[in-house]
Amino acid sequence: MENYQNYKKLYDWKKPKNRKWPDKEIVSAPIWCSVDLRDGNQALANPMTIDEKIEFFDYLVSIGFKEIEIGFPVASETEFQFTRYLIENNKIPDDVKIQVLTQSREEIIARTFEALEGAKNAIVHLYNSTSKIQREVVFHKSQEEVKKIATDGAKLINEYIKKYPNTNWYLEYSPESFSTTELDYATEVINAVLKEWKGHIKTKPIINLPATIECAMPNVFADQVEYICENIENRENVIVSIHSHNDRGCGVATSEMSLLAGADRIEGALFGNGERTGNADILNIAMNMYVLGVDPELDFSHINDAKAIYEKCTKMKVGPRHPYAGELVFTAFSGSHQDAISKGLKAIKEEKKEYWEVPYLPINPKDVSREYEPIIRINSQSGKGGVAFIIEQEIGYQIPKKMQKEIGYFIKNVSDKAHRELNNQEIVKAFLSNYENRLGTLKITKYENKKDTIKISIQIKEKIIEIESAIDNIIDCFFANLKENGYSIELEECIEQVLDKKIITYVYIRKDNIWAIGIDKDKTKSKILALISAVNRMEEK
Ligand code: KIV
Ligand code: ZN
């Protein structure tokens, strides 16, 4: 990468003397504003149709958004018609404000107000670009002239508000490209706009600070935000909002640090849709708060719905590793992770812990309506704990610790041979057919438990042997008969588990290093079946 010399810092950052934000914490949800239907939509190869916008809008309302930027009504007929549709069909709940974007030009402002006619609550969002590069290269205007664009727009909006007195008006101003604007100049422009709006609306004006492009690390942006919060006039009567893009991949961090720095409101889009690298991902920011024990006041308890609506309406895909929502975020492929997860889940269940704390699972998948089932997938990289965990989850078998290693290797082998990951059903099937009540050279042809005595007929190859003995002695008798027929077995482990009125017996034969399982309603028969399975496994080795 030779050309790094072609770049320089885009923002001349002066370290503030007494910054306060690093010592702060996020303790409550900000005001959220979704820009999915404006910034997100304008960044799509095929912008949404009116029907898609309606579906998306209804979803945003259903999960708790109270402020939704629905479009730039003057930018296209669809945007205008969508605004009209929502208003004329009473689609906007009384506690929801629709927001629309406008430039500072009279014909645009006039048409914007036409689009909003009849709305109960509406936010008019005025913007103009203020950075040095835009002033010099794009607009060829001085600082004074660019400031005048903003104040002229603000004045015009004051006039139009008076023409539409039946709407509760809220006003927002964005010094676009704020992140690369000189701070003292940005403050001057913002204060000039605030001065124009003072006394013209009953509601608090919103000053939206865009990281139109992310040009520095999030801490630098937080310093900029803190500076604005400390230097704008009448701060307590202004809502400071953040609109971060994601050019450096830090849109979420930039928004979070801005909240520490004093911002009251966050603009962003689900899954970070938006121009270029997108806007800050609101779902991500909200869920980050949730896992720190702060109510985000947005409901992502059915996170797959968010993904489905987003993918359907935008035709974009949510990546499999997308925080909280990706297909793979509740999986663990590594054996040590699987083991730790299964121990963590067990501890939560048994110790009835007050707080969620499971290694490698920062959030309970159930909280977002995801399943435990796909948490662990078995492939040739998985470890012993993962397989045992899945078997227990699926059929309740508590595989003895010492047996887990062998089963882990066995299933890995099956996966290796298949050259693919195994699903839970395949794992259970392979496990049972290899270990349990295994048929082969030996089999029970008759079994009678007459309370005190037990009578068993066992087929060994072509021969049938009959064993009859008192219950206490039957296993010894069984071993003696096997020995006479050439099978000498040394039982080292025998572990029983009762499950659904059946007894599962896990046995380990040391000399041959064989584990096997028997299952039956009758305890003795379960043990004999386990031993027969072990012999049959030995025979096949
Ligand atoms: O990114 C940006 O600066 C914008 C403004 C219009 C707020 O989208
Ligand atoms: Zn934007």
Question: Can you walk me through this structure?
Answer:
- The chain is of the alpha/beta class and 541 residues long.
- The protein folds into 3 domains: 28-314, Alpha-Beta Barrel (TIM Barrel); 335-433, no CATH class; 442-540, Alpha-isopropylmalate synthase LeuA, regulatory domain (Double Stranded RNA Binding Domain, 2-Layer Sandwich).
- Helix content is 41%, strand content 18%.
- The strands form 3 sheets. It has an 8-stranded parallel β-barrel, surrounded by 8 helices. A 3-stranded antiparallel sheet has the order 9-10-11, with helices on one face.
- The chain starts with 30 loop residues before the first strand and ends with a helix.
- The model has no long low-confidence stretch (mean pLDDT 95).
Count of the domains: 3
Number of E strands: 14
CATH topology of the largest domain: TIM Barrel
Biggest sheet, spatial arrangement of strands: 1-2-3-4-5-6-7-8
- Structural class per helix/strand content? alpha/beta
Number of helices: 17
Topology:
Blueprint: E1 31-34, H1 36-42, H2 50-62, E2 67-71, H3 77-88, E3 97-102, H4 106-116, E4 121-129, H5 132-139, H6 143-163, E5 168-176, H7 183-197, E6 206-211, H8 218-231, E7 239-244, H9 251-260, E8 265-268, H10 282-290, H11 303-314, H12 335-351, H13 384-395, H14 401-418, H15 424-435, E9 442-450, E10 453-460, E11 463-470, H16 474-484, E12 491-499, E13 502-509, E14 514-520, H17 523-540
Parallel strand pairs: 1-2, 1-8, 2-3, 3-4, 4-5, 5-6, 6-7, 7-8
Antiparallel strand pairs: 9-10, 10-11, 12-13, 13-14
The chain binds 3-methyl-2-oxobutanoic acid (KIV) and zinc ion (ZN).
Zinc ion is lined by residues 39, 210, 243, 245, 274-275, 279.
